[in-house]
Amino acid sequence: IVVHGGAGYHSERLESVHAIKKALRRSVNYTKLSLQRCAAVDAVEEAICELEDDPCLNAGTGSNLNYDGDIECDASIMSGNGSHFGGVAAVSGVKNPIKIARALLENAKIPGPLGRVHPMTLVAQGAVKFAASVGIETVPPASMVSTEAQEIWRKWRARLEQAEGGHEVHEMLLQDTVGAVALDKQFNVSAGVSSGGILLKYPGRLGEAAAYGAGCWASSSGIACSVSGNGEQITRTLLAQKIVHQVELAADEADEIIRTILVHDFIRPCRDRGDIEPNAGVILLVNEHTDYGSTRLWCAFTTSSMAIAYASSSKTKPKALILRRPQNQNSKEPVFIAALPLHRD
């Protein structure tokens, strides 16, 4: 089980680092035991629920507020076993948006009466009504707003209104999606994402965390990917799907494939459109069939940092770390990639 707390800027203050690592470690610790008895898709849902419940992360409770000062969450989940998918966007008043996405995934497996096709993605009130119909807890939207999120919103809303053309940007705005990938005992994989979106986003905006192929992807070949970063940039690239499909063709070249996609398919097109800072972070889990019992975790990002945690065995303690891109790295191709070999039980 692997989780991430978003790609962007993470403060080096010990208090902030401790809070993020603690949240990620708790999610992994809670979930790794479940993987002994449940499927990968269950583990991903559980892990993300834990992340959504922690107000120090930008998902569920404590999420960034939109321009109007409201929380609107996006989430999606995908199972490599059957390529089933469920997603929700612009959801308010549901503590765990990933639960709605999972319910949609399961609902889509059931044939509809009279040939009616079940939805793969729901938005706003449609998603909330569906959640209530399947017994998922709904809460007053204001109860999910943290004091810190409210203070940050007031500060940056005021600055945005004063800035000419609204071009003032701060690193605090870059933190985004949380997510998870998992491999179970049956060698099935799953991936998921959840996000409150970028601070001061336009109400009703659909981010990459809800978009099919953009925020997460899982394949029957044993490869799963979860993505974080700027939603519009990632959605244009269909980043998660593209990475998994390319790695499927040559898993032993994953490092070069990830780098090539991030540089040629993501960074350069973004800059051609005038996006000065293309922001993306990726965790990729690859079940290496040529090396029995071995799984490799890849983490790559174009931002200044990315927070991850993982456990490769039910017997090992979760490891949590904030990876940071070297400041002297080539600014034209700012891609940091790390590989971690994991050994299953």
From TrEMBL:
<dbReference type="GO" id="GO:0051604">
    <property type="term" value="P:protein maturation"/>
</dbReference>
<feature type="active site" description="Nucleophile">
    <location>
        <position position="177"/>
    </location>
</feature>
<dbReference type="GO" id="GO:0004298">
    <property type="term" value="F:threonine-type endopeptidase activity"/>
</dbReference>
<dbReference type="Pfam" id="PF01112">
    <property type="entry name" value="Asparaginase_2"/>
</dbReference>
<dbReference type="InterPro" id="IPR037464">
    <property type="entry name" value="Taspase1"/>
</dbReference>
<dbReference type="GO" id="GO:0005737">
    <property type="term" value="C:cytoplasm"/>
</dbReference>
<feature type="site" description="Cleavage; by autolysis">
    <location>
        <begin position="176"/>
        <end position="177"/>
    </location>
</feature>
<protein>
    <recommendedName>
        <fullName>Asparaginase</fullName>
    </recommendedName>
</protein>
<dbReference type="InterPro" id="IPR029055">
    <property type="entry name" value="Ntn_hydrolases_N"/>
</dbReference>
<dbReference type="InterPro" id="IPR000246">
    <property type="entry name" value="Peptidase_T2"/>
</dbReference>
